Amino acid sequence: MIEQRYTIGHADYANAGKVSSQIKSFLKQIGLDPTLLRRIAVACYEAEINMIIHSYGGEITLAMDENSLDLNFKDNGPGIPDVEKAMTPGWSTASDKAREFGFGAGMGLPNIKRMADTFEIQSTQSGTHVHIAFKVNE
Amino acid sequence: MSVVTYTLAKCQKCMKCLRVCPVEAITMKDERVRINKSRCINCGKCIDSCVHQGLQAKGSTLAELEYYDLKIALVPSALLAAASTVSQIEELFGTIKSLGFDEVVDLSPYDGAIANELYGMIADQKEPYLISSFCPVVNRLIEVKYPMLLEYMVPPYRSAELASRRIREETAKLNQKVGIFLLCECIAKLPTSKYPYGDTSSEIDHALSIVDLFPRISKEMGNHRDHVDPSPDGLKLASSAHFTAKGYESHILKADGLEKVQLALDLAEFGQLKGRHYLHLANCINGCVGGNLLWGNPFEATQHVSEHLKTVRGTNAQVVFEASEESLDEVNERKSIQERILEYARVNAQLEQLPGYDCGACGFASCRMMAEEIAAGRATLENCRIRNHEVKS
Hints:
The structure holds 2 protein chains of 2 kinds. Chain A is an alpha+beta fold. Helices cover 37% and strands 28% of the residues of chain A.
């Protein structure tokens, strides 16, 4: 079992994607199947960017064994008022600042769900928790 | 597959090569450089960094000509960009012929045929990507560092192979020993012929480095002339600034130079190149026209292509594209996922003992690589010079 933990700062656009890059290079070192690797990379990147744009910051944890890889994205709020709406492709709340940076196409959560084998989301005002999992047995 | 050769007598053990290698293929062990042939991508960074000529890439020599009855030179499209006018291209071809060849073949009509094939593929391409395969360095880089993008690659069509195959067909009845010599504009193309590391499916007999021929070409230049009718499409394929597919300009991402190429590939892995369906990637600055064995500079070469394109009207070769026998494969020994996780944990345990400076003083390119060696029992923590220093002081 391998566990890793990363901190995401609030609105830390300057470091957008760095955690996903670290996770990607870790998975390459493990030598994961390329197609699986790409699905994880895309989902992880989307979820990391979501945290940077929408949350007050939080934490990404990774746990991997020979059967599955679990990624947890836990932030400190403010929460998603209507999760169902947020899961609709094209629906976006991204601020103008975020859009200036090229974020906010409204495909983030739907894309993550599409890439992952398991997708769970819970959201309250004190934080959002996205859990995704991938089967790794080959 | 590596074309880089090492001369121990010239090596000053400065370890610059080890630090510039983008794929950590170089280590220093027992006071000598070792190149991991299966990791090396032939980018030439180590050769550029070596000021003592300890690292070099050599092609065949013209002395090989005497073993053949009919000698044919293949000239890459990129070399046309070394001449400033079309008239000078003809002088260049005549001069190359005077070095001992019976025929000098312009590869631009074959590159043009490949470009045409690409235009069609780009027009048909929907998401996510199609990645160019004309640069051997980029192909190897993707194999070694970006395996998840392998499935997007254009089949590795090579103009030199297409032309050679045609020459073999045309000369089959002659009952003569035909020697096909490819002039190479970059070091990565040297091993694409049979010299010196075998690609057994190649029809090319020898690869010559253009810089090696330069002294003789410059001496003879102006005394000879051979008719050439270059293909504009072929020239465009070799020049990043000029390559495009009409109507799909905004779908194309062009990146030249290894840093830009790696950035494009990193973003592609995250699915972050939205709207770009074709990636045109080259290791050399400005594409093949900036080849690291050419005597001019990439900026001048690009300018020359702009000039040539005003006048050249040559047609493309008629080529039927088949799937190539050469496939781009992932290089990875398959251990079970459980073993690989355990191995990672073992390496990480060692990595935590190391300073993480990636200074290279131990002879390995990074602390991670050193940790892998320790985990495998081929090195010990005492090999870390920084750590030794800290322990003593």
